Protein backbone atom coordinates (compact mmCIF):
# COMPACT_ATOMS: atom_id res chain seq x y z
CA UNK A 1 0.00 0.00 0.00
CA UNK A 2 1.18 3.52 -0.70
CA UNK A 3 1.13 5.91 2.22
CA UNK A 4 1.06 9.34 0.62
CA UNK A 5 -0.56 12.14 2.59
CA UNK A 6 -2.70 14.72 0.84
CA UNK A 7 -2.97 18.34 1.78
CA UNK A 8 -5.52 19.47 4.34
CA UNK A 9 -8.67 20.85 2.75
CA UNK A 10 -10.59 23.89 3.93
CA UNK A 11 -12.06 22.75 7.26
CA UNK A 12 -13.48 24.14 10.47
CA UNK A 13 -15.49 27.36 10.51
CA UNK A 14 -14.89 28.20 6.84
CA UNK A 15 -16.18 24.87 5.64
CA UNK A 16 -19.13 24.99 8.04
CA UNK A 17 -20.12 28.38 6.58
CA UNK A 18 -19.90 27.13 2.99
CA UNK A 19 -21.85 24.00 3.92
CA UNK A 20 -24.67 26.00 5.53
CA UNK A 21 -24.91 28.25 2.47
CA UNK A 22 -25.06 25.31 0.04
CA UNK A 23 -27.68 23.47 2.11
CA UNK A 24 -29.82 26.63 2.24
CA UNK A 25 -29.56 27.10 -1.51
CA UNK A 26 -30.14 23.43 -2.40
CA UNK A 27 -31.79 21.69 0.57
CA UNK A 28 -32.34 18.40 -1.29
CA UNK A 29 -28.65 17.53 -1.69
CA UNK A 30 -27.42 14.38 0.07
CA UNK A 31 -24.22 14.34 2.14
CA UNK A 32 -22.22 12.64 -0.63
CA UNK A 33 -23.32 15.29 -3.15
CA UNK A 34 -22.70 18.14 -0.71
CA UNK A 35 -19.14 16.89 -0.21
CA UNK A 36 -18.50 16.72 -3.94
CA UNK A 37 -19.88 20.18 -4.54
CA UNK A 38 -17.66 21.60 -1.78
CA UNK A 39 -14.67 19.53 -3.00
CA UNK A 40 -14.07 17.89 0.38
CA UNK A 41 -14.81 14.46 1.84
CA UNK A 42 -17.95 13.45 3.72
CA UNK A 43 -15.90 12.97 6.88
CA UNK A 44 -14.57 16.53 6.66
CA UNK A 45 -18.12 17.83 6.36
CA UNK A 46 -19.08 16.04 9.58
CA UNK A 47 -15.93 17.20 11.36
CA UNK A 48 -16.82 20.81 10.49
CA UNK A 49 -20.10 20.32 12.38
CA UNK A 50 -18.59 18.91 15.60
CA UNK A 51 -20.46 20.42 18.53
CA UNK A 52 -23.59 20.96 16.44
CA UNK A 53 -25.16 17.52 16.47
CA UNK A 54 -21.90 15.75 15.64
CA UNK A 55 -19.49 14.02 18.05
CA UNK A 56 -16.20 12.51 16.95
CA UNK A 57 -15.73 8.98 18.25
CA UNK A 58 -12.51 7.31 19.31
CA UNK A 59 -10.64 4.76 17.22
CA UNK A 60 -11.30 1.71 19.38
CA UNK A 61 -13.12 -0.14 16.61
CA UNK A 62 -13.78 -3.25 18.72
CA UNK A 63 -15.51 -1.12 21.36
CA UNK A 64 -17.60 0.60 18.68
CA UNK A 65 -18.78 -2.65 17.09
CA UNK A 66 -19.44 -4.26 20.47
CA UNK A 67 -21.67 -1.29 21.39
CA UNK A 68 -23.91 -1.64 18.33
CA UNK A 69 -26.24 -4.32 19.80
CA UNK A 70 -27.28 -1.74 22.43
CA UNK A 71 -28.95 0.34 19.70
CA UNK A 72 -31.52 -2.38 19.04
CA UNK A 73 -33.06 -2.65 15.59
CA UNK A 74 -31.23 -0.39 13.12
CA UNK A 75 -30.54 0.07 9.43
CA UNK A 76 -27.01 -0.85 8.29
CA UNK A 77 -25.76 0.84 5.11
CA UNK A 78 -22.70 0.01 3.04
CA UNK A 79 -22.05 1.48 -0.38
CA UNK A 80 -19.54 2.04 -3.11
CA UNK A 81 -19.67 4.40 -6.07
CA UNK A 82 -22.39 2.48 -7.91
CA UNK A 83 -24.29 0.37 -5.37
CA UNK A 84 -25.99 1.06 -2.03
CA UNK A 85 -26.88 -1.88 0.25
CA UNK A 86 -29.29 -1.31 3.17
CA UNK A 87 -30.30 -3.95 5.72
CA UNK A 88 -32.60 -3.68 8.73
CA UNK A 89 -31.89 -5.80 11.78
CA UNK A 90 -29.77 -6.02 14.89
CA UNK A 91 -26.05 -6.49 15.43
CA UNK A 92 -25.57 -9.91 17.01
CA UNK A 93 -23.20 -12.88 16.84
CA UNK A 94 -20.22 -10.51 16.64
CA UNK A 95 -16.80 -12.13 16.22
CA UNK A 96 -13.77 -9.85 16.35
CA UNK A 97 -10.14 -10.50 15.51
CA UNK A 98 -7.32 -7.95 15.65
CA UNK A 99 -7.75 -6.51 12.17
CA UNK A 100 -10.96 -8.17 11.02
CA UNK A 101 -14.43 -8.89 12.28
CA UNK A 102 -17.70 -10.62 11.48
CA UNK A 103 -21.31 -9.80 12.24
CA UNK A 104 -23.42 -12.92 11.64
CA UNK A 105 -26.89 -11.79 12.62
CA UNK A 106 -29.57 -13.52 10.49
CA UNK A 107 -30.42 -10.11 8.99
CA UNK A 108 -27.23 -8.01 9.25
CA UNK A 109 -24.33 -10.00 7.81
CA UNK A 110 -21.01 -8.14 7.59
CA UNK A 111 -17.28 -8.61 7.01
CA UNK A 112 -15.27 -5.86 8.71
CA UNK A 113 -11.72 -4.74 7.83
CA UNK A 114 -10.53 -2.46 10.63
CA UNK A 115 -7.24 -1.55 8.93
CA UNK A 116 -9.34 0.55 6.53
CA UNK A 117 -11.22 2.45 9.26
CA UNK A 118 -9.90 5.89 10.23
CA UNK A 119 -12.69 8.21 11.48
CA UNK A 120 -16.07 7.76 13.15
CA UNK A 121 -18.83 10.14 14.24
CA UNK A 122 -22.14 10.10 16.07
CA UNK A 123 -24.53 12.27 14.06
CA UNK A 124 -27.91 13.85 14.70
CA UNK A 125 -29.41 15.74 11.76
CA UNK A 126 -32.73 17.12 10.65
CA UNK A 127 -34.29 15.34 7.65
CA UNK A 128 -37.77 15.43 6.14
CA UNK A 129 -39.04 12.77 8.54
CA UNK A 130 -37.60 14.53 11.62
CA UNK A 131 -34.39 14.03 13.58
CA UNK A 132 -32.23 11.16 12.34
CA UNK A 133 -29.38 9.63 14.36
CA UNK A 134 -26.51 7.54 13.08
CA UNK A 135 -23.01 6.27 13.70
CA UNK A 136 -20.85 6.81 10.61
CA UNK A 137 -17.42 5.29 9.86
CA UNK A 138 -14.95 6.52 7.23
CA UNK A 139 -11.66 5.49 5.67
CA UNK A 140 -8.53 7.62 5.73
CA UNK A 141 -9.65 9.54 2.61
CA UNK A 142 -12.87 10.51 4.39
CA UNK A 143 -15.06 8.20 2.30
CA UNK A 144 -17.82 6.36 4.16
CA UNK A 145 -17.24 2.65 4.74
CA UNK A 146 -20.32 1.95 6.90
CA UNK A 147 -23.26 3.77 8.50
CA UNK A 148 -25.68 2.63 11.20
CA UNK A 149 -29.04 4.47 11.45
CA UNK A 150 -31.26 4.12 14.50
CA UNK A 151 -34.97 3.42 14.10
CA UNK A 152 -37.42 6.33 14.20
CA UNK A 153 -38.89 5.08 17.49
CA UNK A 154 -35.56 4.33 19.20
CA UNK A 155 -34.59 6.07 22.44
CA UNK A 156 -32.38 9.16 21.79
CA UNK A 157 -30.96 8.92 25.32
CA UNK A 158 -29.69 5.41 24.58
CA UNK A 159 -28.02 6.60 21.37
CA UNK A 160 -26.27 9.48 23.12
CA UNK A 161 -25.18 7.30 26.04
CA UNK A 162 -23.40 5.03 23.54
CA UNK A 163 -21.90 8.06 21.77
CA UNK A 164 -20.68 9.53 25.07
CA UNK A 165 -18.97 6.29 26.03
CA UNK A 166 -17.22 6.09 22.63
CA UNK A 167 -16.44 9.82 22.42
CA UNK A 168 -12.91 10.85 21.42
CA UNK A 169 -10.93 13.20 23.62
CA UNK A 170 -10.19 15.45 20.62
CA UNK A 171 -13.33 17.27 19.43
CA UNK A 172 -11.55 19.73 17.12
CA UNK A 173 -13.80 20.74 14.22
CA UNK A 174 -11.35 19.55 11.56
CA UNK A 175 -9.63 16.35 10.48
CA UNK A 176 -6.71 15.53 8.22
CA UNK A 177 -7.56 13.15 5.42
CA UNK A 178 -5.05 11.25 3.33
CA UNK A 179 -4.97 9.67 -0.09
CA UNK A 180 -7.14 6.57 -0.35
CA UNK A 181 -5.59 3.13 -0.08
CA UNK A 182 -4.21 1.87 -3.34
CA UNK A 183 -3.62 -1.83 -3.83
CA UNK A 184 -0.26 -3.01 -5.14
CA UNK A 185 -0.29 -2.82 -8.94
CA UNK A 186 -1.16 -5.98 -10.83
CA UNK A 187 1.31 -7.58 -13.18
CA UNK A 188 0.76 -6.86 -16.89
CA UNK A 189 -1.24 -9.53 -18.73
CA UNK A 190 1.84 -10.87 -20.53
CA UNK A 191 3.65 -11.47 -17.22
CA UNK A 192 0.84 -13.56 -15.69
CA UNK A 193 1.37 -17.33 -15.72
CA UNK A 194 -2.17 -18.12 -16.83
CA UNK A 195 -1.70 -21.90 -16.66
CA UNK A 196 -0.53 -21.61 -13.04
CA UNK A 197 -3.46 -19.31 -12.29
CA UNK A 198 -5.92 -21.83 -13.73
CA UNK A 199 -4.30 -24.67 -11.79
CA UNK A 200 -4.56 -22.73 -8.51
CA UNK A 201 -8.18 -21.84 -9.35
CA UNK A 202 -8.96 -25.52 -9.98
CA UNK A 203 -7.55 -26.34 -6.53
CA UNK A 204 -9.84 -23.93 -4.64
CA UNK A 205 -11.70 -25.48 -1.71
CA UNK A 206 -13.51 -22.35 -0.45
CA UNK A 207 -14.63 -19.13 -2.14
CA UNK A 208 -12.89 -17.19 0.66
CA UNK A 209 -9.56 -18.46 -0.70
CA UNK A 210 -10.06 -16.62 -3.99
CA UNK A 211 -8.67 -13.26 -2.84
CA UNK A 212 -5.43 -14.78 -1.46
CA UNK A 213 -5.07 -16.64 -4.78
CA UNK A 214 -5.26 -13.34 -6.67
CA UNK A 215 -2.73 -11.73 -4.35
CA UNK A 216 -0.34 -14.66 -4.74
CA UNK A 217 -0.40 -14.34 -8.52
CA UNK A 218 -0.42 -10.52 -8.46
CA UNK A 219 -3.48 -10.49 -10.69
CA UNK A 220 -6.55 -8.28 -10.35
CA UNK A 221 -9.99 -9.81 -9.92
CA UNK A 222 -11.33 -8.62 -13.27
CA UNK A 223 -7.98 -9.34 -14.91
CA UNK A 224 -8.24 -12.96 -13.69
CA UNK A 225 -11.73 -13.30 -15.15
CA UNK A 226 -10.49 -12.06 -18.52
CA UNK A 227 -7.38 -14.25 -18.62
CA UNK A 228 -8.73 -17.59 -17.42
CA UNK A 229 -11.59 -17.60 -19.91
CA UNK A 230 -14.50 -20.01 -20.46
CA UNK A 231 -14.80 -22.71 -17.82
CA UNK A 232 -13.81 -20.13 -15.21
CA UNK A 233 -15.56 -16.90 -16.19
CA UNK A 234 -17.79 -15.75 -19.05
CA UNK A 235 -18.63 -12.16 -19.89
CA UNK A 236 -22.35 -11.43 -20.13
CA UNK A 237 -24.18 -8.83 -22.22
CA UNK A 238 -25.31 -5.47 -20.86
CA UNK A 239 -28.27 -5.73 -18.51
CA UNK A 240 -27.40 -9.20 -17.25
CA UNK A 241 -27.27 -8.30 -13.56
CA UNK A 242 -30.69 -6.65 -13.73
CA UNK A 243 -32.07 -9.70 -15.55
CA UNK A 244 -30.63 -12.04 -12.91
CA UNK A 245 -32.43 -10.02 -10.22
CA UNK A 246 -35.66 -10.18 -12.22
CA UNK A 247 -35.43 -13.96 -12.62
CA UNK A 248 -34.69 -14.37 -8.89
CA UNK A 249 -37.76 -12.27 -8.05
CA UNK A 250 -40.02 -14.07 -10.54
CA UNK A 251 -38.99 -17.51 -9.29
CA UNK A 252 -38.45 -16.51 -5.65
CA UNK A 253 -35.00 -18.08 -5.65
CA UNK A 254 -33.22 -16.99 -2.46
CA UNK A 255 -30.00 -15.18 -3.31
CA UNK A 256 -27.04 -13.55 -1.59
CA UNK A 257 -26.12 -10.03 -2.68
CA UNK A 258 -22.70 -8.67 -1.66
CA UNK A 259 -21.78 -4.96 -1.79
CA UNK A 260 -18.44 -3.75 -0.46
CA UNK A 261 -16.85 -0.44 0.51
CA UNK A 262 -13.17 0.03 1.36
CA UNK A 263 -13.74 -1.31 4.87
CA UNK A 264 -16.93 -3.41 4.98
CA UNK A 265 -18.67 -6.07 2.91
CA UNK A 266 -22.42 -6.25 3.53
CA UNK A 267 -24.50 -9.29 2.54
CA UNK A 268 -28.19 -9.90 1.99
CA UNK A 269 -29.40 -13.49 2.08
CA UNK A 270 -32.94 -14.34 1.02
CA UNK A 271 -35.47 -13.71 -1.73
CA UNK A 272 -36.07 -10.38 -3.46
CA UNK A 273 -39.53 -9.27 -4.56
CA UNK A 274 -40.14 -5.59 -5.22
CA UNK A 275 -37.96 -4.40 -8.12
CA UNK A 276 -38.25 -0.86 -9.42
CA UNK A 277 -36.41 1.39 -11.86
CA UNK A 278 -35.88 5.03 -10.83
CA UNK A 279 -33.96 7.03 -13.39
CA UNK A 280 -30.47 5.58 -13.72
CA UNK A 281 -30.95 3.36 -10.65
CA UNK A 282 -32.37 -0.15 -10.54
CA UNK A 283 -33.67 -0.95 -7.07
CA UNK A 284 -34.75 -3.74 -4.77
CA UNK A 285 -37.24 -2.16 -2.36
CA UNK A 286 -38.21 -4.95 0.05
CA UNK A 287 -39.08 -4.78 3.73
CA UNK A 288 -35.78 -5.15 5.54
CA UNK A 289 -33.58 -4.93 2.43
CA UNK A 290 -32.93 -2.25 -0.19
CA UNK A 291 -30.42 -2.35 -3.03
CA UNK A 292 -29.83 0.70 -5.24
CA UNK A 293 -27.77 -0.16 -8.32
CA UNK A 294 -26.48 2.63 -10.58
CA UNK A 295 -26.59 0.77 -13.88
CA UNK A 296 -24.64 3.30 -16.00
CA UNK A 297 -21.68 2.56 -13.72
CA UNK A 298 -21.59 -1.10 -14.78
CA UNK A 299 -18.91 -1.57 -17.43
CA UNK A 300 -19.00 -5.39 -17.49
CA UNK A 301 -20.92 -8.30 -15.97
CA UNK A 302 -19.58 -11.83 -15.57
CA UNK A 303 -20.66 -15.34 -14.70
CA UNK A 304 -17.92 -16.79 -12.48
CA UNK A 305 -17.46 -20.43 -11.46
CA UNK A 306 -15.31 -21.57 -8.53
CA UNK A 307 -14.74 -25.09 -7.18
CA UNK A 308 -15.23 -25.71 -3.45
CA UNK A 309 -15.18 -28.74 -1.18
CA UNK A 310 -18.99 -28.71 -1.53
CA UNK A 311 -18.98 -28.60 -5.34
CA UNK A 312 -19.01 -25.80 -7.90
CA UNK A 313 -20.28 -22.36 -6.84
CA UNK A 314 -21.52 -19.84 -9.41
CA UNK A 315 -21.79 -16.06 -9.09
CA UNK A 316 -22.95 -13.15 -11.23
CA UNK A 317 -20.62 -10.15 -10.77
CA UNK A 318 -20.68 -6.54 -12.00
CA UNK A 319 -17.61 -4.31 -12.41
CA UNK A 320 -17.05 -0.63 -13.11
CA UNK A 321 -14.83 0.96 -15.75
CA UNK A 322 -11.81 0.87 -13.43
CA UNK A 323 -12.12 -2.85 -12.82
CA UNK A 324 -13.59 -2.49 -9.33
CA UNK A 325 -16.29 -4.91 -8.26
CA UNK A 326 -19.65 -3.20 -7.73
CA UNK A 327 -21.90 -6.06 -6.66
CA UNK A 328 -21.89 -9.87 -6.49
CA UNK A 329 -24.80 -12.35 -6.51
CA UNK A 330 -24.86 -16.03 -5.45
CA UNK A 331 -27.56 -18.50 -4.60
CA UNK A 332 -28.13 -18.73 -0.83
CA UNK A 333 -25.84 -21.43 0.52
CA UNK A 334 -24.41 -22.53 3.86
CA UNK A 335 -20.94 -24.10 4.31
CA UNK A 336 -21.11 -27.84 3.86
CA UNK A 337 -24.15 -27.61 1.56
CA UNK A 338 -23.96 -27.85 -2.27
CA UNK A 339 -25.14 -24.98 -4.43
CA UNK A 340 -28.92 -24.78 -4.89
CA UNK A 341 -30.30 -26.42 -8.02
CA UNK A 342 -32.84 -23.62 -8.56
CA UNK A 343 -29.98 -21.09 -8.59
CA UNK A 344 -27.99 -23.21 -11.06
CA UNK A 345 -31.04 -23.43 -13.29
CA UNK A 346 -31.56 -19.68 -13.05
CA UNK A 347 -27.96 -19.05 -14.16
CA UNK A 348 -28.26 -21.57 -16.99
CA UNK A 349 -31.45 -19.92 -18.20
CA UNK A 350 -29.86 -16.48 -17.90
CA UNK A 351 -26.90 -17.62 -20.01
CA UNK A 352 -29.19 -19.07 -22.67
CA UNK A 353 -31.40 -15.99 -22.74
CA UNK A 354 -28.44 -13.59 -22.91
CA UNK A 355 -26.89 -15.57 -25.76
CA UNK A 356 -29.89 -15.08 -28.06
From TrEMBL:
Gene3D superfamilies: HemS/ChuS/ChuX like domains. Pfam families: HemS. InterPro entries: Heme_Transport_Util_sf, HemS/ChuX_dom. It comes from the Bacteria. Residues 39-165, 219-350 form the Haemin-degrading HemS/ChuX domain. Coiled coil: none annotated. Signal peptide: none annotated. This is Hemin-degrading factor.
